[in-house]
Amino acid sequence: MKYIKDFVSFFSFFVVFILGYFIFVNPQIAYASTTDLSPTSSYIYEQHSNHNPDGIGKFYMGREIARVMGHTGAGWLERGSREVEEQPSKIVNALGLKPNNIVADIGAGTGYLSFLIAPMLREGKVLAVDIQPEMLEIIGYFQQEKNISNVKPILATETSPNLSPESIDLALMVDAYHEFAYPREMLTGIVKALKKGGRVAFVEYRGENPFIMIKALHKMTQKQVKKEMQAVGLVWRETRNILPQQHIIIFEKPVA
């Protein structure tokens, strides 16, 4: 645990500066490597040798998949300016959570959103899902430090969130979905994990706005998100543009 505490505190400032530079200027650094680029369903994906250096060369429904931010970027996720820049508290308030809800924070990273949501779920819990064991270790450290008992770290794979069928009321993905190496498989698993009438909330930088200074592959348009969600049977309910640079796009799993 001492290693984790030292890691977060010592590297926080350094990583915020360096990772911020590479996200905005040079996208080829500070990303975790993708372990397996070969598609499980070849007809769903296309692999291109010539591609954006910020991507993995793998395309899904016309969109190139972005590289994954590695656990060395933990300091960036925990930066002190995040509340001002992204206003995550507004995200939480916009979700319409109930005290007994089970929420899956998919691509939870350090658990920044998970720990904001947890106090609102007095009778429920947050499933903090990530594919990187190092991120889950950091979540475990923060869980002890904050003395929060209703956050459960879950190790996912690139193709599965590892959630039980019909077990969650809401799946939340904050600046994470565009990095999924197998979006169709992950979404299929998420939909299976949703209760009937359950919701999926995407928070992504607005791809429609060229003046938002985030690399193109780390933004998504509402049109693209809707197209990909329709492919797995989710129904669009609303889009909320209450954040400085991101939109909140909410879908629902049909009851019937």
Any overview of this molecule?
InterPro entries: Methyltranfer_dom, SAM-dependent_MTases_sf. GO terms for molecular function: methyltransferase activity. The chain crosses the membrane at residues 7-24. This is SAM-dependent methyltransferase. It comes from Brunnivagina elsteri CCALA 953. This protein is an alpha/beta fold and 256 residues long. It has a single domain (2-252), classed as 3-Layer(aba) Sandwich (Rossmann fold), CATH 3.40.50.150. The chain contains eight helices and 13 strands. The protein has helices at 2-24, 74-77, 82-86, 88-94, 112-117, 133-146, 183-193, 222-230; strands at 31-32, 45-47, 55-60, 63-66, 68-69, 102-106, 125-130, 151-155, 168-174, 194-206, 219-220, 235-240, 246-252. Strands 6, 7, 8, 9, 10, 11, 12 and 13 form an eight-stranded mixed β-sheet that branches. Strands 2-3-4 form a three-stranded antiparallel β-sheet, with no helix packed on it. Strand 6, helix 5 and strand 7 (125-130) form a beta-alpha-beta unit. The longest helix has 23 residues, at 2-24. It is globular. The protein starts with a helix and ends with a strand. 39% of the residues are buried. Residues 13-40 have low confidence and may be disordered.
